[in-house]
Amino acid sequence: MRDDVMLRVEGLNKVFDSGNRRVEALSDVSLEIRKSEFVMIVGPSGCGKTTLINIISGLESATSGSVLLDGRQVSGPGADRGMVFQGYSLFPWLTVQKNVEFGLKMKGLPTGERRDIAARYIELVGLKGFENALPKQLSGGMKQRVAIARTLANEPEILLMDEPFGALDAQTRVVMQELLADISRRTNTTILFITHDIDEAVLLGDRVYVMSRRPGRIREVLTVDLPEPRNHHCLVMAEFQQIKSHIMEMLWQESSDAAMDK
Amino acid sequence: MKNKRIDTTRLLSLICFCLIILLWCLASYSGSVSEIFLPTPTAVVEKIIAMAKDGSLWANCWESISRVMIGWLWSVVVALPMGMLMANSKKFSAFVQPIIEFARYLPVVALVPLTLLYLGIGENQKYTIIFLGTFFQLVLMVCDTVSGVDRNMINAARTLGASKFQVYKEVILPASLPGLMDDLRLTIGWAWTYLVVAEMVAANNGLGYMILKSQRYLATDTIFAGLILIGLIGLITDWVFRILTRLVAPWYERLADGK
Ligand SMILES: Nc1ncnc2c1ncn2[C@@H]1O[C@H](COP(=O)(O)OP(=O)(O)O)[C@@H](O)[C@H]1O
Ligand SMILES: [Mg+2]
Hints:
The complex is a heterodimer. By secondary structure, chain A is of the alpha/beta class. Chain A has helices spanning 49-57, 96-107, 111-124, 140-153, 170-187, 198-204, 238-261; strands spanning 5-18, 21-34, 38-42, 64-69, 72-73, 81-84, 158-162, 191-195, 207-211, 218-223. Chain B is globular, with a radius of gyration of 22 Å. Chain B contains 10 helices and no strands. The relative contact order of chain B is 0.11. Chain B has helices at residues 2-29, 41-54, 56-88, 90-103, 108-119, 123-147, 151-159, 164-201, 207-216, 220-248. The structure holds adenosine-5'-diphosphate and magnesium ion.
């Protein structure tokens, strides 16, 4: 038991039971994330990744098992666990500035303080000058920058990200990955990031949890030892390729097992 | 690109409008349709001008407009909170849904005899007809609009620390505003139709009454004038609502406006 563990998930099970259809989404998932660590979860589509992160964020409840943040059991959503969604989920009637201020306003911070904090995070994600733009005027990458700033401005203890770059084109995705790697290093934010993209998992993660197909289980945990800063140069390194092919092999086995079952 | 497309749609609407006028002119001025059935555009315009001069135009329009507004506002005032409550409480929804679903399939015309029996031929009967015609639909529309707010947006607000009340005030209300404006715009249109129904049954002023009375004297020009006025007023309200929607929710992008 290490005492710098920020998030601990223990024996999580989730069964969706909607009358006649019973879906076992997660089976005995346990993991831990240390303070300031950047942890990736990679797994095939439909394996239960979103379900897992929704349970951690408190948007969904587990069938059994527990989620501990800083040693405290969590239930229900809270500002201590910030979430960035694949679909941006910005408030279209608010400007960039007001979107980023949203959580601070909910907390009841005075206007001036709100403005200063928001300005800092808008700058951090490289959106200075776009404070007064509406979401509809922004590209997908810029929208996701706003969503990241909005979540970080709340200063959560952990940043949860559910395939945040899944809807972006390949070039924008790399730019965003580098931005996030940079933010993680500069702000020491603890991050749990979910993806089905193996490149993304290896490029960003200090550690990578690999999940099996549904019902999602943890198959393996890998430590990634790539030099800092993490950027697109890492993609061609031997160490990167080695871990990547290992994960690919594992996920390939998963899908061929699935094919045998049929 | 976008502007060009809007221009073409405008042009098409205009062409359709002109075609109808053209057909009307052809049929009436050529004398192929008797004046008793189809008055000439000139006769109708002259009639409207005459009514404007003797004041009956304004009086009738005003009567009709004020009836629509009062009946419809009553329906809005009750339907808005009720629809919102339905969207947020399964229990309340289960309680009222059956009766609303039942009532909204009752044709308002079929309720006219009862309203006359209970309320007589006064103004309250007119308001009631308009209320009954719009209320049950509006409640369900409001409920649909409010429950249709993007779940992801609500989830985002909750993970940002918003309480249930804050989610309602800061997310659900602003997000459903444009949809609610659309609901209001549609129901006020229906209110117009029900008003004419009410005025044709029992009234001694208003546009519906004017049309009914003209039938007795075979004054087709007045009937056409009445129809055109009703159509115009409807068009203007619709237009005002669209502008209002753009004013209160400038961020809103209608799906049809997209690329
Ligand atoms: N609310 C729900 N009701 C029933 N089944 C669900 C629900 N949410 C997710 N599932 C099922 O659980 C499984 C895992 O879904 P999800 O967590 O979204 O996977 P991933 O994010 O890894 O693609 C899928 O088979 C999905 O159909
Ligand atoms: Mg998912």
